[in-house]
Amino acid sequence: MSDNLRLSIVGAIYLVSAVLFILGLKRLTRVRTARAGNAMAAMSMLLAVVGTLIEIGSVDYRWIVGGLALGGAIGAFIAIRVPMTSMPEMVALLNGTGGAASALVALSVLWGAFIEPGAETTTAKLLTGPSAVTIGLSVFIGGITTTGSLIAWAKLQGKLKKGAPILLPGRHALNLLLVLGAIAAIVVFTAVVKGATPVAVVILVVLAIALVLGVTLTIPIGGADMPVVVSLLNSYSGIAAAMAGFVIGNNLLIIGGAAVGAAGIILTQLMCVAMNRSLVNVLVGGFGADAGSGGGGSSEYVGVTSSGAAEAAMILDVADSVMIVPGYGLAVAQAQHTVRELTKQLEARGKKVSYAIHPVAGRMPGHMNVLLAEADVPYEQLVELEHANPEMGNTDVAIVVGANDVVNPAALDDPTSPIYGMPIISVHEARTVFVIKRSLSPGYAGIKNPLFEAERTMMVFGDAKAILQEMSSELGEL
Question: Do 291 and 452 contact (CB within 8 A), yes or no?
Fold first, then answer.
């Protein structure tokens, strides 16, 4: 095969792969088309790998086959064994592996450039200035993404103060010094030091700073802000991949990384709006650090009304409209299929049933959408916050399943609350509210929820799955 023909084939494969990737990303924005979008993105990645192998030409396919076998086995294990409740942690880890891969690609290119003995020149002269800069940026952003994702994983797992913020003295000044140090090191790496050993030392300094910065930027973040962090780290992994694309001169990797990075930034902004946080707060770290302090007033509950599943079933039997608000507790109890069975019973009785979805309910963007899609909840029944709230006043019964902070009215009327100003689902406006919860313990933000004391609210204490099953059983006997 001639070089021209080979390059033409590679170009065509890359073009098709890029188109499939963009279309797949677009389809992932809707629950109804998400599976098709995921399949298109997977096919795009396969074509990208095939095109890269053809472009390289001479490769040792034993390593390729070994990598495919190992990666496929790990992927299959994850798909089968990781529960829905661990999906946010899994996403965080995948973001981290993407950042680590980009940094390793850049380091491997640098290793290949300086492997020849006696290459006593600067990185900029050996690889050209732009290539040297992108190597530094790929290592820097990839390093931040790696350790930042590991910290996010540990926080989501509750392994670091149960996800609470960890505030370092002078953390903002420390982060600024680290960023300036990394910029200076990249400049030195690019155009000052000469020879393999000095270049290696400086790029490892860049990597070390990045790894530390990933930790210091992430550990001050806690409470209900973790969906923003996961989204931002996803953007970082895309940017790191785009930098790696510049390093190896692969246009498809540049396109894919840029698309993921841009999509992550847009999603981060949407999450910031949903959390009433500014993007600047996200970028400098430390936002949500005071979330666990609570608002003004006592943290004790007074005048809480509780009920059982039987009483709830009787009220549901006479209701005309029901709106369900899912939260992380629904995922923990693995009750998505049970709540779907309850809604089927209600629909069979002529009730109007819908699900009010808060953008940051759960532990990652779209967590509730994915959870309910697994239970085959019709996409048409999922109502976003801005459309759910106008309907809440006319809703007979609102059932809150495992949600807490996203339905906390303190965000509306308590200026001392750390979540004040955050858009919430206004379940307190419904005629009757059932809150299914194990106890009166605070949500992920660590603050009191006045909804539990409201006159229209009845607490139904217990495991969400068991309570919903009992509701279904009682409703069936009426």
Answer: no
Using DSSP's 3-state secondary structure scheme, residue 325 falls into strand
Catalytic sites, residue numbers: 405
The C-alpha atoms of residue 150 and residue 226 are separated, in whole angstroms, by: 13
Return d(Cα 234, Cα 257) in angstroms, integer: 10
Which tokens go with 3?
A: 């070089």
SS3 content of the chain, % helix, strand, coil (to 5): 65, 5, 30
Residues of the chain with confidence (pLDDT) below 70: 1, 31, 84, 115-119, 161-164, 222-224, 277, 279, 281-299, 444-445
pTM of the model: 0.78
∠ CA 176-179-180 to the nearest 5 degrees?
Answer: 85
Residue-wise pLDDT tens digits, 148-171: 999 988 888 877 766 667 778 888
Rounded CA-CA distance 52/50 in Å is 5
Q: What are the b/e assignments for 205-227, b being 16+ CB within 10 Å?
A: bbbebbbbbbebbbbbbbbbbbb
Short-list 17, 167, 160, CA closest to 92: 160
**Helix 129-156 crosses helix 171-191 at what angle (to 10 degrees)?**
150
Contact 228, 219 (CB under 8 A): no
Distances (CA, A) of 314 to 46, 322, 401, 474: 54, 13, 18, 8
Block residue for tokens 């847009």: 266
